[in-house]
Design brief:
Elements (H helix, E strand, L loop, with lengths): L6 H6 L5 H18 L1 H6 L4 H11 L12
Helix pairs in contact: 2-4
């Protein structure tokens, strides 16, 4: 179960769209797995956790957030 960062806070980073959040996180996690393979072997976190942390911190953002208003 994911506790930190909270899913509701992560969704806010993608304009409230959980679909965009999941795609963004999956793409970033795959990128991390291919570029930081040696680092992940000794890390306590998995690539998806690192990706979600980066999204939460604002390091990774979607290329376009549709305004629903």
């Amino acid at each position: 179960m994911m506790i930190e960062p909270p899913i509701d806070e992560l969704a806010k980073k993608t304009g409230g769209n959980k679909y965009v959040l999941s795609i963004l996180a999956a793409k970033r996690a795959k990128e991390i797995e291919t570029t930081r393979r040696a680092e992940l072997a000794t890390a306590d976190k998995k690539a998806i956790s690192i990706a979600l942390d980066e999204i939460y911190e604002g390091k990774i953002v979607p290329s376009k957030i549709e305004d629903e208003n």
